[in-house]
Design brief:
Elements lengths: L18 H18 L13 H13 L12 H20 L15 E14 L5 E14 L8 H7 L16 E13 L2 E4 L1 H10 L17 H13 L3 H6 L3 H10 L4 H9 L5 E13 L2 E14 L6 E7 L2 E6 L2 E6 L2 H9 L7 H12 L8 E6 L2 E4 L1 H14 L3 H12 L6 H12 L5 H4 L17 E3 L16 H11 L3 H14 L31 H20 L10 H4 L15 H17 L1
Helix pairs in contact: 1-3, 3-12, 5-8, 10-11, 11-13, 16-17
Length: 600
């Protein structure tokens, strides 16, 4: 079922594996989605209204062209995630976890579909933050033979041969109701924000502050680390939050006034006596992003109740820890050797072999340090960028051969008693997890519908039972429409027409081209438009547009029910915009259509 948009013109609408491979497929899909979603351009992006964010998000996912998602993210968020995620995927290819033909603009092996999607807006007490709620049905199929599995997995998990994975049947759509997301306004455009979405879920019934905690950075990169350490030493929560990268922590800083007083009061009651000193740093990098390596640092804690003291000093790659006068020192990768010695492991013990293999694999490990970011002339600590760097530093240190050696070393533990004891430990713990429950043979993946999804936007100031969509209504109509959409174009259009005539299908619940076949667009828009050449598509739009404009002029339909390209075909610039995903082109198209709407 395809509902009718009430606030904005419709945008583009397109279209049993074994447990280990299903898991890999899911990871590949998620990783590719994240990277593709963040590797677009740095133009304004976003949407012209809160509801349109939901429309464009669903459209981009529905078409399985994930580059469209990039325009919905705030510019700062794109900058935070882009390079680290590209680096991660490059590493996965280098390590042959992903195959070389893995594409960042197409998740091979997945067919995602949305149906019956609606978007509901709910205003907040501030003008620049709005909650949107997505409802509808979602499904997906997975063809494991097309998933870009790399040679490492093939060799180590499947004996060098790609497993025969039959294509899964289309899963029955799973309904989702009022999935919450939060959008924010910046310079007249609206963006989807995961951080604000999390903050909105946490705030409850409190009012959003008009002004948040003002960011307060440092003059130099290394001073951003001093702000962090000083605020920890002084248990100064406000200073700590203010010193975080505002492109990462903007939502936290905006919502901080809701909790910071209570949290600081709780910290003030903590009786701690510790210092962080002897700080020495090395700054590397250029531009507005740098990394700060800690060359030296000391920490000292004394129990105010007389329970003793502990101190730690890091310098020249060695860490010295003193507890009530007893001192130990660890340097570099020597820690693993020391652990093996403390466990009194024989040289041929498989556990020692694991430790030795780890030490060898990471002998070239070179941590980047702490990431800092210059924003509006001040330097801030970037915790998310730091975590990405830490992960990629570990992966950078490995190569395919080292991972293979680690796998074999860990597999060798099966020859001892270590692994054999694990099932009994799990059983005794009462966890009772059966791997058949984790990966059932008939597993399918539920997600989202391409050729069927468009979006209905309902605007409201506050959520109420009177205006929220009725989740139980029109079930019969939905089934009738779904049966029609399972048919080819000619039969499907006739099916809908018959349903409208019989009263089993509401004409207001299908795309505008179907109830008016006399305009000549019903069958082409059933599916053909998504594969038409530019000239053919533009000719179709020019041919059928006058008919729909006449319907608007007569009051038969609303201008918001029309497909965007039919409002003014000249906005297409001679292209089929259902097959064109250039952000600049899409922006020009939207602007042109919006201007044309004003004249109707």
């Amino acid at each position: 079922m395809i509902p009718v948009t009430t606030e904005a013109p419709k945008r583009r609408s397109k279209g049993k594996a074994i447990g280990a491979v299903v898991g890999v497929a899911a990871l590949v899909a998620a990783g590719t989605f994240a990277v593709v979603s963040i590797t677009g351009n740095d133009e304004a992006g976003g949407a012209s209204s809160p509801g349109e964010v939901g429309t464009l998000l669903t459209t981009a996912l529905d078409n399985e062209h994930l580059l469209g998602v990039i325009d919905l993210l705030p510019p700062g968020a794109r900058d935070t995630f882009r390079d680290p995620l590209i680096r991660t995927v490059d590493n996965l290819k280098r390590l042959e976890v992903l195959s070389e033909d893995a594409a960042l603009d197409d998740v091979a092996g997945f067919d995602i579909r949305f149906t019956d999607v609606t978007v509901r807006e709910e205003a907040t007490n501030v003008d620049d933050i709005v909650n949107i709620f997505l409802s509808g049905s979602a499904s997906a199929t997975v063809d494991g033979n097309e998933v870009p599995i790399g040679d490492l997995l093939l060799d180590e998990a499947f004996d060098g041969e790609r497993p025969e994975i039959p294509e899964s049947e289309q899963a029955d759509p799973s309904e989702f109701t009022d999935v919450p997301m939060t959008v924010v306004e910046r310079d007249g455009r609206w963006y989807l924000s995961a951080f604000y979405s999390a903050a909105e879920q946490a705030r409850g019934d409190q009012q959003i502050p008009e002004q948040g905690l003002a960011p307060a950075g440092a003059d130099e990169p290394e001073q951003a680390i001093d702000i962090m350490l000083d605020s920890i030493q002084e248990l100064d929560l406000e200073r700590l939050i203010a010193g975080l990268d505002p492109t990462e922590a903007e939502a936290l800083q905006r919502y901080a006034p809701l909790f910071i007083d209570d949290a600081q009061s709780a910290l003030d009651e903590v009786d701690l006596d510790f210092t962080i000193g002897d700080r020495e740093y090395t700054v590397e990098g250029s531009g507005d992003r740098r990394t700060v390596a800690i060359d030296a640092l000391s920490f000292a804690f004394t129990d105010p109740e007389g329970g003793g003291s502990i101190s730690a000093t890091y310098r020249d790659g060695c860490t010295t820890v003193s507890f009530d006068g007893d001192e130990t020192q660890t340097c570099g990768q020597g820690g693993l050797d020391e652990i093996a010695d403390q466990l009194d492991l024989d040289p041929d013990d498989p556990v020692r072999d694991v430790f030795d293999t780890l030490s060898s694999a990471f002998d070239d490990y070179d941590p980047s340090g702490i990431s800092v970011h210059e924003v509006d002339g001040s330097w801030y600590l970037s915790p998310i960028a730091t975590m990405f760097d830490a992960f990629n530093d570990v992966v950078d240190a490995l190569d395919r051969a080292e991972i293979t050696e680690l796998i074999h070393a860990i597999e060798a533990l099966d020859t001892g008693d270590y692994i054999d004891d694990i099932p009994g430990i799990i059983e005794d713990s009462g966890i009772g997890v059966d791997d058949g429950d984790l990966f059932p043979d008939d597993a399918t993946v539920d997600t989202i519908d391409p050729t069927d999804a468009t979006v209905d936007t309902v605007t409201e100031d506050t959520a109420s039972a009177d205006t929220a969509p009725d989740d139980t209504s029109d079930a019969g109509a939905s089934d009738a429409i779904d049966e029609c959409y399972a048919l080819d174009a000619a039969a499907g259009v006739q099916c809908v027409q018959d349903g409208i005539a019989a009263g089993t299908i509401d004409p207001g619940q299908v795309v505008v081209t179907v109830p008016y076949p006399e305009c000549g667009a019903a069958e082409p828009y059933w599916s053909e438009v998504y594969s038409m050449e530019d000239a053919e598509f533009v000719a179709l739009a020019e041919q059928v547009s006058p008919c729909f404009l006449d319907l608007v002029a007569s009051g038969e339909i609303s201008k918001y029910e029309m497909h965007s390209e039919l409002i003014d075909p000249t906005c297409l610039e001679g292209k089929n915009w259902y097959t064109n995903f250039e952000s600049d082109y899409n922006s020009r198209f939207y602007d042109c259509v919006d201007a044309a709407l004003e004249t109707l």
